[in-house]
Queue: 2 jobs
Job 1
Amino acid sequence: MSKAHLEKTTKQRLPRWKSPGLLTLLGLASAGGAFGTTLPPWITVNVKDALQHATVNVPGSDAAPGVSALALVALVGTLVARLASQKIRYVITAIMALSGVGMMFSIWSTMADPASAARTNVGEATGVVGMDADYTLSAWPWVAMVAALMIIVSAVLIGIASRSWKQRKAKYDRNHGVAVPANSHEDLDEIDTWDSLTRGVDPTDNR
């Protein structure tokens, strides 16, 4: 490897916190974790009256269905942001951040009024709505709150760091019909190489 190419590679090396792979992993882990927190019970309801005694466990997906839906939005957004152009990426990361905010609002609403969040499940289990009951929140809404916050953080970091990411534009570039110089094959990524092959150009040919 030539000294000039080595210097160019070093110059273009991104700080670790700007790494596309690391930030994508953070976004996926945050969104996937948020979705996962909706599976266990968020609310335990102990119903007691003269006729029956029942315990109803309400999962997060029922107590706060918006959290599950917004987590999927953030998950898809993270995947698409890695492949999108810079302008589109700004829109996607904004949607991701708003998803996180919406999740936090939904979680907080559930925690503030667990009786309303559990009403449907209690009615289905007991056949009666509006019975006196004790409502106990588990730790999962707090975990979901942290995951939602991490989605917002990852969206902001992706939006900032992605300005330094290499554009994946070869196939859709307006100049895609221009042959790539043969002596530039060292700078090609896998997408550039594939597009060169589809144009009948050997990207490894040094002649």
Note: The longest helix spans residues 86-112.
Job 2
Amino acid sequence: MTQDRDTLRRQLRQLRRELPAAARIAAAESLARHILALPFFPQSGYVAGYWAMDGEIGLHVLQLRLPPGLVWCLPVLDGDRLRFAPWRAGDPLVTNRFGIPEPDVAPSSALEPQALALAVMPLVGFDAGGQRLGMGGGWYDRGFAFRHGSAAPPWLVGAGFAVQQVPELEAAPWDVVPDAICTESATVLPHDRTARAETDPA
């Protein structure tokens, strides 16, 4: 695959869109198991997910299985910034300028990224070293830029399908590298630079 980021995004987005429905359902189940098994998964605080669009792997199973001390949140756009607001199934939603549903709250009242215990970030591609390729808008890189110079929390987890893995991604200075990347079949721990992957025994 090409290293031109725009072309690579188009190729990988098409790959994930082509996954059959049965595979998506099974993947969401397995993804939840991998995320909940992370050694740093919190037991209290705010956990942010995302509303799956454009073939992204779903987080609905993860949301349903959160420990009782955790509050599920979704992203809210506040100008050119990303904030997060608690959301439960049935709570009102509005559609943002990109056509993505988000909680119907005043953006200024939503949580700052620093307030989260953990954030699950969508991705378009990733490599075995834990580098994440996003949609190109830089929302998560801007929102969590403070992690360049500070340790977790919030812990950052990229989520995608195994088919979205590429041999290698070129890093950009503004890229925020997640603390883990989880798919339906593996967990990649980027900061262990041996790129060790913990995979399902089956």
Note: Residues 123 and 134 are 5 Å apart (CA to CA).
